[in-house]
Amino acid sequence: MMAAGKVTDLLPYEPPVPLKVRVIRKYCIQWSPTDKSQLFYLLVDESGNAVEAKISTRLKKIDSKVFLYKCYLLTGYVVDPPQKIGKVVDQTVTIIVGDRAEFHAIDELPIQKQFYSFAPYSSLEGRYHPTAKTVLLTGTLQLESTSATSIVIDLAIEGYSEEIKSLKALTARASSHYGYQTEDDIRNNLTTIGDILSKNPDTINNHRFSCIAKVKEIFANRKWFSRKCTVCLDNMRREGVRMVCKNCTVAQEEVINYCVNATICDNTGSMPVVFFNEAMTQVLRVDCRKLVIDEEYNDPVVLPPQLTELIGQEKIFHFIFKSTETPSIQQTLDVHFTAEPEKETEILHEEVEVSDITSSSTAPKTPASKATRRYDRQQS
């Protein structure tokens, strides 16, 4: 059997070492109400050190074969920096378990089955004391009238339910086609952020809006670009000097795209938005791969100057609401727009013809505008 390392030997973005561990916790973290629950394992090695293992959401087969309090030899994982939100142990790394990771069952080892740092003592401070004084209330108490304390009786009216179904279907079809795509339509259908925020989020799914706003802030901690595997489309991770996929055993090419989380604002309010690759390429006029590879802005949490210069700039933003509360920018236009003067182009063309007439009888090197004026004086 291969020699096993320790949790303390692991470093972010470095090649992994085989670990002999005991699984002592399984738990899920949900970052927001719209996100899926993320499965984690808490692993303890022979030295008594613990580390979090983030399990891919696709690995139901692996989870069904990994049992609590059993010992395993873990290989093929990826080492990332620790979680910024929801971290449960004080470690400098997080283990990422993908398709190429393997849990090999091994014989029982002298590894503890408890880890008391699962809940840091600092998080318990203030919880073991009474949080408030007991208050004695007298008289008649009544709950505030809210949706939780109210009952709505829906009477069965003949034909009512069928009518509602038809209206819902009509609304769904209208929502999926609602919006405008051409540049002229975008400029002629502007609204304000305050008006958008006043709408019910449940009624604007798949709706498009446009407004004149400024980029107020760009969140560097959310990473401004993504590196994905061309095969499984999962995020690539750095391992030493190379990028690896947690799922694919064979080295794969990577796709580098913009994914910029920002806040835009006008004089009526502000809201978060996401610039994906097409929209941000339109704004910066430079490919994301060129910034990351050629110009070496390869730290996803450090903004390049091309992005910081956008802060404070006023643009026309055209965006759409999808399944999340944060809209994605579809198109970005300059606020000031001037069409080409077609009439002036025609006049210039006529002057050039006149200059050709006069140039044959007079000085051939005379500019077109002067030749035109000389021709007019001769005629008068």
TrEMBL record:
Q: Where is the composition biased (Low complexity)?
A: 358-370
Region Disordered, as annotated, extends over: 351-380
| Gene3D superfamilies associated with the record | Nucleic acid-binding proteins (2.40.50.140)
Give the highest taxon in the source lineage: Eukaryota
Return the PANTHER family for the record.
OS03G0429900 PROTEIN (PTHR47165:SF4)
Name of the protein in its database record = Replication factor A C-terminal domain-containing protein
